[in-house]
Input
Amino acid sequence: MRRLRLPKLLVVSFGADTWEGDPISFFKIATTDYPIVGERIAR
Output
């Protein structure tokens, strides 16, 4: 039987095109929102 292996690292694309100041995007995520998003992904 195989053992389940859990990842030690998760790599996520940064997604800077979602930043509110990006001139070619319609997303409006503030700089202060990114740590919150990161915490949610980490859960």
Q: What stands out?
A: The radius of gyration is 15 Å. The mean pLDDT is 87.
